[in-house]
Amino acid sequence: xxxxxxHEGKVGAEVTPQKYAIVREAILMALPAAGSGLxxxxxxxxxAPGLPQxxxxxxxxxxxxxxxxxxxxxxxxxxxxxPKTRPLRLLRRPDVAPxxxxx
Length: 103
Prior knowledge:
The chain is mainly alpha-helical. The protein has one domain: Arc Repressor Mutant, subunit A (Orthogonal Bundle), CATH 1.10.10. Helix content is 43%, strand content 9%. The chain is built from four helices and three strands, in the order H-E-H-H-E-E-H. Strand 2 (79-81) and strand 3 form a beta hairpin.
């Protein structure tokens, strides 16, 4: 499936629907809807242990899929960057519960 991206003029990555769904759910469940959010490293550390090793055998694949799906979820308005933060911090949309986002 073709993913969306927040980068204007660029095309999102192409991934299998199965891997997309797994990483999407993991990201949406891990990100808080309020507060200071999670840094990129904190997000990866939160989701990596729960990803099936047979589909994501190396940390490189975890990082790549997490970034690709993160950009897609941002483009769809389901997650957002916390303004004026370094390093980058991410939040889930505050108006929708994680279970509703995943389904």
